[in-house]
Amino acid sequence: MFNKTKILLSSLLVMSIAPLYSAHAEAPKNDKFSAYIQEAIQDELALHNVPSGLRQSLNANGLTASLDSIQDPALKDNIEKLQNAEVTIVNFDSDGAFVSAENSERGDITKDFVFEEKKDTDGSSERNSLFTSNHDVSIQATPNLPGGGIHLQNNVSGDGAFHRLTTPASSASKSYTGAVADDITFPAYDIATANKYGEAGYLYTGFDGVGGGYAEVGFGTASSSVGQYPTAWFPLFHGTPSTGATKEKGPGSSDIGYWYDTSKPYTAGQTVSGYKVYYKTNEPYLKLRYLIGNSELYVVNYPNVKNLDGMKVKRLTTIGQPKQTPQTTPFHVGWSTPAKWGNYRFLTNNGTSTAYPGELAGLSDQTCLHGGKIYFLKNVISSTDRDESYWIYLP
């Protein structure tokens, strides 16, 4: 558990730092990476209620000189990390397929992005079709569940066991443009064994468009059978074709699959401090900004998603299974420790404010157990801090 500080800027603080934001230099026009860093800093300040006039006067040198005057430690830490962030521009094409990735420090890193379509590689699909008992399921002890939580009830079908929260559609008066969390903790999970059965763990934020086409970014598990990359959790990226209706099935249902940045592995039980994913309503197509720890910034372009009206944002916590797996067939490997979303909030009003899931009228709350169990525990620490933990495990 991290000590989390409520992030507020008083009018006195704004007055004390305003004189220091006086320089007029800007990031070089040809430096696209620096421009994205400056934009992310502006967006962070906007989220924490710094007036727009003051934000517009910021520049790299002026901001550096002003950091000592920022008394809020969490905001100051975020900005310090953002100033030195590693930036990766990820491009999908008009069909929703991955094209390229360019990194501010390492250049072209397209080769580090690995495609994985979840397929059974251990013959389990045939066994699943004839599934009659639990003897074919990997033996796994029931996790130690703390009190105070609830077992979620199945109310939807899909390709895996998952819990999905989806905002109402954005409107002119209320936009939903992303999500932010103080931290994310990855569950203990036998990734290599799960991978043999075409299964994987996912923690991600998705964006569903009214006109078809959607995108998802977050984290997913992958395991290389030939040792090309470690068995771990990785940043995940996903796009779908712009034709047809928005898909509403669970993870693993894409015909295109998931792409992983295998240069950034994370281990079971590891906690990542800082998670933010968002888009802007005034852009010609969906362009996601994906921040991990405020030190890694992905700019993900989805030119196939042009209609941003009515966009919905969703959060998925899941174990994905191969498509066409019978709904009563459980996954083979569960989580022995929980996945945790630390102080997760949806971004509203074009990224300038937040709302907890429980504060949204019309929030869609869907669970697919797929023969397994999901235990959910919400720990409300204060009015501005709460954790949500999930155990997805076998009966």
What would your notes on this structure say?
The longest helix is centred in the first third of the chain and has 16 residues. A hairpin with a 5-residue loop joins strand 1 and strand 2. The protein is an alpha+beta fold and 395 residues long. It has seven helices and 21 strands. Strands 1, 2, 3, 5, 7, 12, 13, 14, 16, 17, 18, 20 and 21 form a 13-stranded mixed beta sheet that branches. The chain has an eight-stranded antiparallel beta sheet with strand order 4-11-10-9-8-15-6-19. The N terminus is likely disordered. 15% of the residues lie in helices and 34% in strands. The chain is globular and about 55 Å long.
N-to-C span: 28 Å
Largest sheet: 13 strands, mixed
Residue windows where pLDDT falls under 50 for at least 5 positions: 1-30, 122-137, 243-256
Briefly note the structural class of the backbone: alpha+beta
Mean pLDDT over the residues = 82
Morphology: globular
Helical residue percent? 10-25%
Give the H and E element order.
HHHHHEEEEHEEEHEEEEEEEEEEEEEE
What fraction of the residues are assigned to beta strands by DSSP? 25-35%
Q: List the total number of helices.
A: 7
Rg, alpha carbons: 21 Å
Give the tally of β-strands: 21
